[in-house]
Amino acid sequence: MERTLINALEENVPSKISGWAEKIRDTKYMIFIILKDRTGSIQVSIDKNEKKELVESLTGVLAHSVLSFEGTMVKSEYVKQGGKEFLPETVDILSSADAIPLDETANIDTRLDYRWIDLRSEKNNLMLNVQTAFVEGMRNFLLEEDFTEIHTPKLIATASESGSDVFEVKYFDRKAYLAQSPQFYKQMAMAAGFERIFEVAPAFRAENSNTNRHTTEFTSFDLEFAYIDSFLDVMNMEERLIVAGLTKVKEKYGEAIKEVFGIDVVIPTIPFPRIKLQDLYQELSKRYGYVIPEHDIGDMNAEAEKLTSRYAMEEFGHEFIFVTDFAKTKRAFYHMRENDVPQGYDLIWKGTEITTGAQREHRYEIIKQQAEEKGLGQDVQFYLEFFKYGCPPHGGFAIGVDRLTMLLLGLPSLKEEMFIFRGPSRLTP
Predict the structure, then answer these.
(1) What is the distance between the alpha carbons of residues 418 and 121, in angstroms, rounded to a whole number?
(2) How far apart are CA 338 and CA 363, in angstroms?
(3) Computed from CA positions of residues 36, 37, 40, 42, in that sequence, does the dihedral angle turn out positive or negative?
(4) Is 114 exposed, middle or buried (CB count within 10 Å of its CB: 0-12, 13-18, 19+)?
(5) Of 32, 164, 196, 279, which residue is least crowded by CB atoms under 10 Å?
(6) Residue in 164, 129, 260, 150 with CA at minimum distance from that of residue 198
(7) Domain boundaries 6-95, corresponding CATH code
(8) How many CB atoms sit inside 10 A of residue 314's CB?
């Protein structure tokens, strides 16, 4: 369709604009329509005495109908919409809308029932544009670092990392599973000699969890790279990746985020603070009187993550902090160990873990032993084959794109942030 986008309108130049009728106000002498497209909105002003045919055409048309107008944009000091209004000569009703079953007071579950309508808001439009910029910044950074983008299968023959928390599906005459992550295939790429790869793709977790930060399907930003000396190289790579993503967001949408969400986008300094888990336990106990519950010893929980961010701000003035030296019982079998300590980390941002990263074990006999130790020997036999024929030292991590966006914009839950949310009790729309 040939049309002029609202943000490209020029004064007194005949134009055609198309979009949603966000609001329609019918007064005694005028009809005012706030028309919105992907670039912004403008007031369309119709004089009832001068444009009787237009008025007749618009009789019974409700807000959220899709309209197209031909006319001119003029400037007016009396119009709140940026001091501009559109004076139409013709109207074309592209799609009539019924009365919208939502209002501003609707709860999140009702809004999710009509998510396609809920997403029309300025706030949600900005949210998804911000997410796009975040991913764009990170993807461009990796391309400049000579990474190759791959696309791994999501239907797999065995559970991806363990024997639980996966969705089972019927695959012709046998069972298959939805991949928890591309972890095994990322490492296969290392064994194939690609050296540096990344993927942005869906991942699936069959967790019956109803927290604000869990979902059964999410978008994962994964990377893996070879010829590293230790997991410190992985941490260094992630720092630079995060900075690249946030920089792109701030450049494109920093002012809009401040206006709509009241959030300042902070570009973190490098290096991020780092602390060993046992030292962190001591700090949380000393500063806040918090003692990790016995069943979480060797790991972290939601409360510990919140306090860790508080500690990072108080001690380092930093939004991010790496935590290292977790217990081997709490880490995946493919994490390399040194003196029986997994060579990996969690990255905490704004009170929430956003990454588990590590150097992977690349030596066949050792990784086979660690898999058997976890009771996974036969289940991961195909994966162990990757390391039989030579594989360089490597490491990597994954970031949940949805969780990143939620934290960046200060949203209360993934239900608010995701384009379409999937949870234990929600499979539609």
Answers:
(1) 14
(2) 13
(3) negative
(4) middle
(5) 164
(6) 150
(7) 2.40.50.140
(8) 11
Q: How far apart are CA 385 and CA 333, in angstroms?
A: 15
**166 contacts 178 by C-beta, under 8 angstroms:** yes
Closest CA to 179 of 208, 150, 149, 217: 217
Single-letter residue type at 231: F
- 3 state DSSP class of 140: helix
Q: Please name the residues in contact with 88: beta carbons below 8 A apart, sequence gap of 6 or more.
A: 44, 46, 51, 54, 69, 70, 71
Q: Enumerate the CATH 3.30.930.10 domain ranges in the chain, comma separated.
A: 115-417
pTM greater than the 0.90 cutoff: yes
- The pair of structure tokens assigned to 391 is 């594989």
Write the CA distances from 224 to 58, 393, 424, integer angstroms: 57, 11, 30
Give me the CATH code for the 115-417 domain, please.
Answer: 3.30.930.10
Q: What is the pLDDT along the chain (429 residues), one digit of tens a residue?
A: 899 999 999 999 999 999 999 999 999 999 999 999 999 999 999 999 999 999 999 999 999 999 999 999 999 988 887 899 999 999 999 999 999 999 888 999 999 999 999 999 999 999 999 999 999 999 999 999 999 999 999 999 887 565 458 999 999 999 999 999 999 999 999 999 999 999 999 999 998 878 888 899 999 999 999 999 999 999 999 999 999 999 999 999 999 999 999 999 999 999 999 999 999 999 999 999 999 999 999 999 999 999 999 999 999 999 999 999 999 999 999 999 999 999 999 999 999 999 999 999 999 999 999 999 988 878 788 999 999 999 999 999 999 999 999 999 999 999 999 999 999 999 999
DSSP state of 212: T
| Two tokens, residue 265 | 């986008």
DSSP per-residue letters across 384-414: HGGGTT----EEEEEEEHHHHHHHHHT-S-H
| Peptide linkage before 342 cis (omega within 30 of 0) | no
